[in-house]
Amino acid sequence: MGFLDILLGRTKPALPDLDQLFALPSAAVTLEAAAGFTPTGSGAVCFATVEGSAFEQTHREVQALLDADAERDGPPVELRQDEYGYSWLVSRRSPEQLPMLVNDLHAVNSSMEVNGFGPQLLCSLAGFRDPAGRSIALVYLYKRGTFYPFAPLPGGGQRRDNALELRVKAALGEDLRMEQDLSRWFPVWGAPGL
Q1: Phi then psi dihedrals of residue 104, to 5 deg
Q2: What average pLDDT does the chain have?
Q3: Are 171 and 29 in contact (CB under 8 A)?
Q4: Among 117, 101, 95, which Cα is nearest to 32's?
Q5: Distance (Å, whole) CA 2 – CA 14
Q6: Torsion angle of the four alpha carbons 180, 130, 161, 153, in this order, in degrees rounded to the nearest 10
Q7: Could you report how far apart the first and last alpha carbons of the chain are, in Å?
Q8: Which of 44, 93, 116, 179 has the fewest CB atoms within 10 Å of its CB?
Q9: What is residue 40's DSSP assignment?
Q10: Closest Cα partner for 115 from 46, 184, 62, 182?
């Protein structure tokens, strides 16, 4: 960054670092100790929907790769579209297979990036739940290379538990590269995998 950039307040955007996803299993241990949340075994990658044969081929390759895993518990990987028009590739594992879930999320992101669809990648998330039934997602922002917690309040509606999100941020600050700009903690209402 040059002097003029500093003077004008311009910053270089953070580059995606998909290897940050591999910190999720150790962060899960901290999250359980600090707040009682354990992995649900569900996760998803969100991307802007793209039309065309190149994207369809990439999607089929990723889905075939992940569906071929003989150790998967439950349904195969599925592609879903949300009410806002975004696509989600959802992976389900047993809760104790969080490292394998992280491998799935990394593989989807890497495949899309390698095939030229990196600009369409938005976020990835892994779901967690506590004994009281509250849910939280650790969301990885692809374009920022950072994580943030998203905690919808139980009972439906579009309200979130901001106090819980801030507690989780404080607890995981040593484990994950947390997003410091709270205005970038976008809600992911109804996200598959949450």
Answers
A1: -60, -50
A2: 87
A3: no
A4: 95
A5: 16
A6: 140
A7: 38
A8: 116
A9: E
A10: 62
Contacts 24+ apart (CB under 8 A), 132-137: 134/37, 134/161, 134/164, 135/40, 135/194, 136/31, 136/37, 136/164, 136/165, 136/168, 137/188, 137/191, 137/193, 137/194
Extents of the domains making up the chain:
14-184
* DSSP three-state, residue 129: strand
DSSP track, 134-167: -EEEEEEETTTTEEEEE-BPTTSSS-B-HHHHHH
Structure tokens belonging to residue 115? 């095939």
CB 14 within 8 A of CB 178: no
| Residue 138 CB neighbours (<10 A) | 27
The 10s digit of each residue's pLDDT in 132-168 is 999 999 999 999 999 999 999 987 788 999 999 999 9
Q: Are 40 and 95 spatial neighbours (Cβ–Cβ below 8 Å)?
A: yes
| Amino acid identity for residue 192 in this structure | P
Q: Is 155 left (phi over 0), alpha (psi -120 to 50) or beta?
A: left
